[in-house]
TrEMBL record:
GO terms for molecular function: ATP binding; hydrolase activity; RNA binding; RNA helicase activity. Its EC number is 3.6.4.13. It is an enzyme of class 3 (hydrolase). Belongs to the DExH box helicase family. One of its GO terms (cellular component) is nucleus. Coiled coil: none annotated. It catalyses: ATP + H2O = ADP + phosphate + H(+). Residues 282-449 form the Helicase ATP-binding domain. Gene3D superfamilies: P-loop containing nucleotide triphosphate hydrolases. Residues 537-711 form the Helicase C-terminal domain. Keywords: ATP-binding, Helicase, Hydrolase, Nucleotide-binding, RNA-binding. This is RNA helicase. SMART domains: DEXDc, HELICc.
Amino acid sequence: MHSRVGFLLACTKRRSSYFSTCSALLSNLFSSNSNRNIFAACQRQILIGSDVSKVYYLPDSNFRWLGQLRGFCRYPATAALEQFSDDEYECDYENHPASSSVANIDEWKWKLSLLLRNKKDREVVSRDKRDRRDYEQICNLAKRMGLYSEIYGKVVVVSKVPLPNYRPDLDDKRPQREVVIPLSLQRRVEGLLQEHIDRTQLISGKAENILDGTNSSDMVEDANLDENPDSFLDGSVMEKVLQRRSLRMRNMQRAWQESPDGNKMLEFRKSLPAFKEKERLLQAIARNQVVVISGETGCGKTTQLPQYILESEIESGRGAFCSIICTQPRRISALAVAERVATERGEPLGDSVGYKVRLEGVKGKNTHLLFCTSGILLRRLLSDRNLDGITHVFVDEIHERGMNEDFLLIVLKDLLPRRPDLRLILMSATLNAELFSSYFGGAPMIHIPGFTYPVRAHFLEDLLEITGYKLTSFNQIDDYGQEKMWKTQKQLAPRKKKNQITALVEDALNKSNFESYSARARDSLACWAPDCIGFNLIEAVLCHICRKERPGAVLVFMTGWEDISCLRDQLKAHPLLGDPNRVLLLTCHGSMATSEQKLIFEKAPQNVRKIVLATNMAEASITINDVVFVVDCGKAKETTYDALNNTPCLLPSWISQASARQRRGRAGRVQPGECYHLYPRCVYEAFAEYQLPELLRTPLNSLCLQIKSLQVGSIAEFLSAALQPPESLAVSGVSLC
Ligand SMILES: Nc1ncnc2c1ncn2[C@@H]1O[C@H](COP(=O)(O)OP(=O)(O)OP(=O)(O)O)[C@@H](O)[C@H]1O
């Protein structure tokens, strides 16, 4: 290394960073030099200008040569010439262990000024050990120059943009992996990032205002914002954040509605009867604190009404300020309706629409419409008595009069005077609207006519005629298996005391002569055992559907898990119904995990008939798209009192007319359907119009225990505020015990 063509600039430090810096520097200095025709940066030397045969030595300790170089540009011969050997160089390097040096900082100064000057470069990365030691100084330097710095293990990075805490590309220990994240998650992350950017902009806007001359105490708040953004935002900042979020929600809503898919969905939604009442409903809700809505099956009350509120709030630029809760009596309906509404809004679940049921839910920071079970809202009300932040509460399927719904009404009625801005909307398919309206001081009532595709109802006499099935006293014994024999015997044993409905059913049967039916059907009807569920009859009806009817799924309403599992076992042993290539047999019961319950919404493979065995949990609010046939056994498990054992128990009882209509309504929601009621029409006519509220059929002692566990004060006082309270004397008797 004794002669060079051109300038040789050499230094005794072996850092490649020196040389890259030198090369950058020289490139800069010589950019206007027309004589320059070679420019090369190698490991230890930099050669410049082939026409000059001089070698210049760079002093090793620092970058003061910078000035010399500048001078050299003007007076090329003034720099010192020096020759050196490789060995010498190595020695020099080993004898001077890397230390925090002024040279290093000078070098960084230069690197950073180059970085700032060069528009294309975003960052400087250095793996130099020495940089790590000087990191604090480099960091201060970067900050002074308006740059960001971070150290990742052994690597120092200075950047024009803020740096993350972790850089996978600079992590030698863990190789980079490509991770595919679901689109919904990606959208959520994007949403959160956007929100963060909005908030940062707002804060910086606010900081600018403060710097313009307002007080400084808010500055402290701003500094802490990153730790827990919302808790440190004062009212006005929060208002601005929400305004921005509302605007974004409006843009997104409009974009979806204008898209081809959104347009198609909107057209469908406009075809539902609820749409015609939209304006009237919105006005009524705006003007009254409580509104009672009765909407017949399929009119769109569950999926549309809460959505109308959300949409109109978003459209008026107040989307982020509203928070709507819609209760459902069951987990599966909360989940299914939330999924449907999210689809109708062109969003993944958990965006503006979410759901929450016991132990699970999908809900994001931007969720403004939440479907939950009545139990979840009741629990929340007990810890948050004012329902702070909630603007609208929808209580759906109120006609079912479950215990939670009745309790909810008591607590909400108590809350309304304290929250005059809160809106309460009671909804039901078949509702005794006057009763609810008078409970809430004459709240306005709105009725929406129903919409279903035509559903043909076949009662027992019709289906015996169609199928030719013969009922005998032997083929109506439901097979619960050996270990459950006691239940069958108990069921078949004559009841000492008939309840009202059983007596009505018997009367109706005695009065009917089924004249217009064949002798075979009449004989069958004479043998009909009303106390049985009729597993064999169900099997015959399912066979008839599979063999003779058009394609479409079948939904069979049973009373509980016991019937469902025993019938499933029986059907699985059947040559046709148990053939998995021809029948997909599914079950749905309250004790199943939600993920298992969700399977009922999945489509069966082609040419395979889906049969779903479900309890009355599939009776309201849910739409199984491919259901064409409904089989209704006419019974449901109800809480009753077992006097013999002095305990409350769940026993199969006749359903109400309202329930039968709801069951029928599960067919015909997206196409015409058929409903097979496994009881005669005269029995249907003898059913009670509505079911007795759970509050009135639950034994008082267990009711009182429930109230105690809710910690809502005196039992008697609480129950006296109910829509239909139990006898006060009986209540005081039990609560005193
Ligand atoms: N998951 C779904 N897939 C396809 N269409 C659906 C779905 N959910 C609802 N729909 C359609 O929207 C209509 C209205 O459904 P919605 O649940 O709002 O009715 P509803 O008035 O609450 O009736 P119900 O009380 O009987 O459930 C249905 O009749 C059906 O046509």
